[in-house]
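Example complex used in Figure S2.
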Amino acid sequence: VTYKWLSYTLGVHVNQAKQMLYDYVERKRKENSGAQLHVTYLVAGNLLQNGHVCHKVAVVREDKLEAMKSKLSTIASVHVYSIQKALLKDSSPLYNTDYDIVKTNLQHCSKFSAIRCAAAVPRTPPDAPRAPAASQGPQRQREPDTAGAVNGHGPPAAKPSPQQHKGIMGMFAAKAASRPQDTHKEAKAEAKAEAKEAPGVSAASSKPPTKNNIMNNFFGKAAMNKLKVSSVPEQPKEEKEVVKPSAAVAEPEPSPNTVAEKAGKKTESARIQQKDKKSKTKRVDRSDDEEERDPENVKKKRKRIKQLQSDSSDEEDVPPSPTPEEERAPSPPPVPALKTELEPASTEVSAGGRKRKRKRVLKSKMFIDEEEGCMGKTG
Amino acid sequence: MFSEQAAPTAQGLLAPPSAEPPTFPRVPVSGYSDCSQHFQLGERSFSRQYAHIYAVRLAGMRPGLEQRARSRWGNDIALRKLSELQAGEKCCVVGTLFKAMQLQPSILQEISEEHNLVPQPPLPKYIQPSDELILEDELQRIKLEGAIDVQRLVTGTILAVYGSEQDDGRFLVEDHCFADLPPPLPWNGPSSDRFVLLASGLGLGSVSGEALLSTQLLVDVVTGQLGAEGEQSCAAHITRVILAGNLLSQNTQSRDTINKAKYLTKKTQAASVEAVKMLDEILLQLCSSVPVDVMPGEFDPTNYTLPQQPLHRCMLPLASAYATLRLVTNPYQANLDGVRFLGTSGQNISDIFKYSSMDDYLEILEWTLLAGHISPTAPDTLGCYPFYKSDPFILTECPHVYFCGNAPHFQSKLFQGKEGQRVLLVTVPDFSATQTACLVNLRDLTCQPITFSGFGADSED
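Predicted assembly (840 residues):
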């Protein structure tokens, strides 16, 4: 038990934690309960070394404490560093404890410290789509794991929707890689989205391909009751596809990026994808299904849905204007949910009928995918 | 200086829990400005020859050297170019030095077929008694002999020699001088105690983990978690932390995986990936509490040639979110609270160490200051970008604190110049080896080392 561990676990100031440890030691020793406690102290002070005065900070065992104190000419501070039942051979367990506790509390590691720095604030990223970066960073990293591991589970809508978006973007990006005659803007957008996805996705794609197969098998066997099932196998697939082309892409930017941007691009791409029949139904349906489960209902969304309903009725060339508007949306969670709602709103009608088609389409896709997977393995 | 203030409340924390403990606000950064713009390379093109950098270096330092020569040897001495030399005439010549060394690793020798030699293993020093000095200017070169210390000087130094040409074509040197310290900068230092922590050679990613606890202790002291109240309030006066290079250890540089077959190394990651993640966590802890400047070093993932460009912020995703993190170039110059800092991660000093008889890092540091150039060996033995417009390594303004990282041990000296310059020379030791960092007090330009230690199985510390 180090003072830092105590401080984080109990949520107290570090100085209080040190005092608590001291108090505990004193009380236990007075009680003479027989349990031997070994204490390490932190000693800091001035020491004459090599001709100049050197400030030394050291962690010492209790038995060496007095020796160290006598070595120092001026003692700046002494306090309890840690308490343990067993005698420590060296200080690595202390380091490990501290490392672990700091790792679990990385985002607010200065909360209990004695010094507050006014200048140290997580910077708000320059463009709006990046607004979630700092706060959502750790969450986003956990998302792929949860999405991959869960089957049929219904996490909050906001989380899966970025996931789905990523998946969709990945698919589209893969398509874009094979279709160089895309417009310059789109290609750039795809590359960007692809690049941005790659790190987030590659984290998830660390899930071994076996998971992919498991999902596929499950999907093949079980009836399509929950949408997650369809979406999840597609995701690892898409991730796989993304991982491959991402190798060709330049150094990807970090994952905490532009949910909204991606979502914006996604709608753009989704519309373009509608030209591609094979993937269109599935993708659109998938987003449909998400939407159906989306509990959020923002007024804004309704407005947009109406707009897009009129737009999507054409289902021709994607007007780029809605997407920049969407990109500028201030907060990401409403935005992705908003966008996902756009799709289903337009295709809700055919959702039911397409479900059966989707099964078939998906199966064939799975087959191809497995083939791809096999080929990938042998290649 | 750190400790005296803290002494009274030293034992304060050996007591039962008291009332709400105080938190100290960090001393705010009053004046910071980054002056290292000329070290940042925009678009880089390597299609130019390196001869240009010598030409601009000579052209840049010639006026200053001529002035120094006149002030030293009289106003009426003859300043000649090598092409105008006459035998027997005492004159002064300004030129670039070239040291012809037999042991110098030469790529031409390596690939020359007649020699058929195995490439030379790296030696600690390449000097030999048979080395010769040659002075070059724009058009000609001439061998030097006489009152000049061949072993001490290195290639690329611009200097002025005073002497005469002999009949056999050599130049007999009677005296020589360097550019000397540049004109001093006005002193605007703070009036109260402000500290800057200099550390280098964190060496993350190394196989041995001994320095990890010390690194954690360093972070704890700076962020104010360690120490009694007095010490914490002193730590609140640390306005900045400068990490001068070698954040990753040399172990991360192993390129064995290139030689192995692809199927064996498919799943292995470069060791630097883990090390950078660890670095990111440590920087995050530091950045949430104090402004940090991170300079790249020899083993860090950035370009090899000087000036090394800043580490890319996408490698440090967690820490980059904080505005207190600054990723800066390798020779780094900045104004902190009115005090001008200039420093490198040590590659220039260790390169001079290899090719000169000077053994002491502090001595070499002082010598570069006197020679007016941060790294004279730059294109010759140390990788450098082919500058052609101007040489950014020439010292044009005298810094107040001049440091170099990754030195074998800590040394510091307050150097007084002739025109009233005061420079604090600091050699920052390698933290992974010595567990020592430096605290510079900006108020009175003093420096104190700070050592951290844990306890091992058999250590007596």
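Chain A has a mean pLDDT of 54. Chain A touches chain B through 74 residues (CB under 8 Å).
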